[in-house]
Amino acid sequence: MLRWTKPSPQPLNLMRNPDSSKCGLLLSLLLLATLTAVTLLTRPLAPIDETRYVSAAWEMWLRGDFLVPFKNGEPYSHKPPFMFWMFHAGWALFGVNDWWPRLVLPLFSAGALLLTYMLARRLWPQQAGLGGQAALVLVSAQLWAFFSTSVMFDVMLAFWVLVGMHGVLAAAAGKRHGFVLLGIAIGLGVLTKGPVILLNLLPITVLAPWWNPGLRWGRWFGGVLLAVLLGAAIALAWAIPAGMAGGEAYRNAIFWGQTADRMVESFAHRRPFWWYLPLLPLLLFPWFVWPGLWKALAHHRRLGLDRGTRFCLAWMLPVFIAFSFISGKQPHYPVPLFPAFALLTARVLADRSSSRVGLPALLVMALGGALILAASGQIAALRDQVAALPPAWPGVLLVLLALAAWVAGRRDVSPALNLALLGVAMVALVQLTVTRSIGPFYDIKPMAQAIKQVQDEGLPVANAARYHAQYQFLGRLEVPLVELQGVGLTRWLAAHPEAYVVIYLKDGQNLDAIPARHKQAYRGGAVVLVNAQVAARLLPDVE
């Protein structure tokens, strides 16, 4: 007599299938939270960029003016206000603090991971496992991991690019709200980092007939035009009243001058078109250097390009080429392309099961060995360039983790999980090492607080160099610093003998001999806060 037996449930092997039950997405969010915690606990707001942006938000907050950003008492036209508004929202809820501005970008990064996960499900609905793997690839790519915890605009811009990509796919599926979503993404992207959002979003719409054959061209491009107009209307809803409030110079800058100047600078041939190519192994580590990815990509190409793959290529390649030919390059400009890389990587890996991670693990192991040598003082040149030798334990732990990743790869642990853990661990441990070594060169809060004390005594303070407002927020300064250089500073000192001056020195070798209200290391040199008489003696040496 045959007897039916209920099959026992199979245990879920998360190590071999990290996307099961959305655990790939959850793990990526956990890794992001770990990186954020490490950053908050070890690294200060870094001059010049991070401190400048938080200071611009602080001056808006002080003035109660949420239309026009200010820097050191003057309208600041270089960046739109959306990120500053996000800082204000947190300060309204929690009070003015240092930690909220540093959480805004990780929160947008978390949103980008979720949108990437959802985008994979829209592009490949029959392969639900790709979303979690794409999120793991994204969170562990080195440049994304670094800028997810930095007070910069690029990850926030990438969030709006992803919103726009969802709108593009919805519109391609015949849903009119897709064009509305695209327009909202364009408008808020402009308010985040200016018109560069169009460079990230318009190529995918122009190439839509390639990745989505059968579109009605007239209806499609008409909808795209309406989306651009909607985005422009959203941006102008801020720009018009801000231009009227900020004055003629500010109005000219945000409507024309800034864009024209940047275009001239961008085509000034400062960096060659191939400049990004040698950086890719580092920016996309550990994925770019993993031979398994390139084998999977070759295999996928032989199988043919599906709609989702074409979508990712149409998103990524035209924009990367455009950035390559714009000579005003910065390493972080391609950050909004990283979700496309993560999606493409997850898709091509679905066709192959290779899990060995030998080369990335070997490179991480070599990095760990270099950190151990640096900690032991074996790299002689390092002593003159750091505030303190790094600790040895991050290097040792990095070597052990690389060995573990090597062994795990040979035991069929998911490469997405294995490489993601290795990549995030590398970023966290290197950050711990670097903070100990060069952190004192970038922690300027003590100087900012010393300036605040002088201003509270009713004394003026000048900055003997171009001033980037790096002290305004950290010192909670309510009075701008006088920005002076050269002859103008000499005359000002003669007219203000009671004043104090912030002076920057090329090195700190003679720092102990300088009588100063405050002095400290600063970005490879030193900075001192001295009275007018000492400043007059120091200026010839500084100049």
- Which regions are unreliable across 5 or more consecutive residues at pLDDT < 50? 1-14
Helix coverage percent = 55-70%
Q: For the largest beta sheet, what order do the strands appear in spatially?
A: 4-3-5-7-6
Largest sheet: 5 strands, mixed
The portion of residues forming beta strands comes to under 5%
Task: Report, as a whole number of angstroms, the end-to-end distance.
Answer: 100 Å
Q: What is the CA-based Rg, rounded? A: 26 Å
Our count of domains comes out at 3
| Beta-strand segment tally | 7
Q: Characterize the overall form.
A: globular
Question: Which H/E pattern describes the elements?
Answer: HHEEHHHHHHHHHHHHHHHHHHEEHEEEH
Which structural class best describes the helix and strand composition? mainly alpha
The count of helical stretches stands at: 22
What is the strand and helix layout of this fold?
Elements: H1 23-42, H2 49-63, E1 70-71, E2 74-75, H3 82-94, H4 100-123, H5 130-140, H6 142-147, H7 154-172, H8 177-193, H9 196-206, H10 208-211, H11 217-246, H12 248-266, H13 280-283, H14 291-303, H15 307-325, H16 338-349, H17 358-375, H18 393-410, H19 415-442, H20 445-456, E3 461-463, E4 482-483, H21 486-495, E5 500-505, E6 518-522, E7 525-531, H22 532-542
Helix pairs in contact: 1-4, 1-5, 1-19, 2-3, 4-5, 4-7, 4-16, 5-16, 5-19, 7-8, 7-9, 8-9, 8-11, 9-15, 11-12, 15-16, 17-18, 17-19, 18-19
Written overview of the protein:
With 543 residues, this protein is mainly alpha-helical. Strand 6 (518-522) and strand 7 (525-531) form a beta hairpin. A five-stranded mixed beta sheet has the order 4-3-5-7-6. The protein contains 22 helices and seven strands. The chain has three domains: 20-349, no CATH class; 358-442; 445-542, no CATH class.
